[in-house]
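Quick review question:
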């Protein structure tokens, strides 16, 4: 031991020497000797995992109580992140074993923020990983309720359950479909999918809690928020969905209420209940209710005019139309056609006829970035001809050009645009009863996608 009474292994961890730690463990040093190992640097963990027998070596340290230092700006290469996710999968396989459970959960709680993802496509979340904390909803969507939970003992999460009025087979099918899309997404401007878990008769989809709530509530609460930056982040997320993975994803229900803002002011697209992979030759056999779902304030006119399932299919172009509406929401803090109140019939007719919302001309809105050029971009998004609408990449280019030409506004965001590693409503009916989602069901959904 050194003068501070630390063991050689504790010193190796403190000095981030993965080579020394590997050597000592290979020589049979007891990792439990001398008390807790303390917090390791992210680089130490990555180097250890990438070395010989990295996973088995790191597991010994986990059982001995090692944790990981918090490094918010630590950059991890894709290969290293993949190796870390592989290690988390191995830890989760032995998570339920009583002798190692507490040590594993404690380690994962410090490791999870570092990698920003949680691999759960193989096994559902165990009760020691996630707990439902409140029986009152923290928010509501068109077909779902959101509850507050705790993940790995210390991370606040949102737990989404489908509504009770839906039939059991409908809720199960919709959850499988949504998770089949959501679990494959990985982008800084898309809300991460942590996993799913069943408490009693109810199944929940779990995601990180977004402290700043949805985008519309955020811009209303923060008049000085950088609206152009938020628009660019939303467009980045949408571009990823449309072009960032091998099969384009149609979001299908893009609006500010389905975009959440992190504690650092980063926009993240959420709610994939109406999403699908676009490369299908024929319309999928979804219910008529699924095809008709949506609100005309955000829907493209071709969806309202559809006379067949093929014509009613959502596309990348209908997503772009909705993105233009989101831009209007972010600049104004109002839903499209807000001046028509809840008169859905009037809104339907205006959109059906290809008419635009009224242009806001007050100085405050213009100062936030809604100038002539931005209004023209939004009008292109709302073109009656889908082929005339810009791509998400084109929106990004124009918005980033506008960002370069203006000073930064007061914003929570630590970054400008690009990669980065809550309303209260009392529940009036019990959460949805859903049969336990089976791992093979999720794999079957993924196989169909491939």
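Suggested answer, residue by residue:
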């Amino acid at each position: 031991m050194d003068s501070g009474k630390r063991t050689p292994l504790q010193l190796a961890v403190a000095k981030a020497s993965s080579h020394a730690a590997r050597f000592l463990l290979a020589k049979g040093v007891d990792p439990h000797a001398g008390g807790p190992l303390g917090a390791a640097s992210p680089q130490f963990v990555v180097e250890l995992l990438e070395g010989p027998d990295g996973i088995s070596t790191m597991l010994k340290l986990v059982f001995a109580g090692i944790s990981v230092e918090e490094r918010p700006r630590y950059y991890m290469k894709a290969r290293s992140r993949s190796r870390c996710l592989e290690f988390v999968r191995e830890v989760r396989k032995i998570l339920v074993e009583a002798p190692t459970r507490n040590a594993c959960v404690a380690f994962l709680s410090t490791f999870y923020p570092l990698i920003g993802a949680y691999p759960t496509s193989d096994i559902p979340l165990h009760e020691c990983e996630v707990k439902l904390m409140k029986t009152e909803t923290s928010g509501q969507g068109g077909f779902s309720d959101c509850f507050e939970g705790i993940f790995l003992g210390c991370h606040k999460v949102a737990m989404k359950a489908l509504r009770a009025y839906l039939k059991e087979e409908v809720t199960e099918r919709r959850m499988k479909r949504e998770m089949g899309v959501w679990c494959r997404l990985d982008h800084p401007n898309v809300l991460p999918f942590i996993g799913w878990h069943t408490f009693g008769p109810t199944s929940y989809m779990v995601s990180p809690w977004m402290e700043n709530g949805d985008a519309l509530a955020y811009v209303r609460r923060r008049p000085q928020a950088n609206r152009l930056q938020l628009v660019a982040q939303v467009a980045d997320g949408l571009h990823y969905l449309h072009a960032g993975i091998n099969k384009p994803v149609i979001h299908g229900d893009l609006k500010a209420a389905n975009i959440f803002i992190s504690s650092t002011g980063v926009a993240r697209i959420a709610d994939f209940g109406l999403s699908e992979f676009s490369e299908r030759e024929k319309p999928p056999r979804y219910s008529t209710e699924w095809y008709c779902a949506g609100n005309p304030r955000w829907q493209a006119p071709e969806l309202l005019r559809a006379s067949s399932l093929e014509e009613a299919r959502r596309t990348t172009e209908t997503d772009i139309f909705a993105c233009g509406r989101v831009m209007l929401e972010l600049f104004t803090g109002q839903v499209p056609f807000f001046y028509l109140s809840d008169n859905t019939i009037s809104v339907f007719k205006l959109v059906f006829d290809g008419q635009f919302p009224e242009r806001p001309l007050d100085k405050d809105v213009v100062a936030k970035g809604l100038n002539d050029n931005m209004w023209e971009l939004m009008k292109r998004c709302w073109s009656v001809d889908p082929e005339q609408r810009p791509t998400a990449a084109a929106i990004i280019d124009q918005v980033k050009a506008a960002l370069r030409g203006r000073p930064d506004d007061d914003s929570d965001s630590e970054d400008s645009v690009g990669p980065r590693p809550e309303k209260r409503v009392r529940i009036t009916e019990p959460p949805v009863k859903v049969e336990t989602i089976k791992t093979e069901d999720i794999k079957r959904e993924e196989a169909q996608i491939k």
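Why it works: The longest helix spans residues 98-115. Residues 414-437 have pLDDT under 50 and may be disordered.
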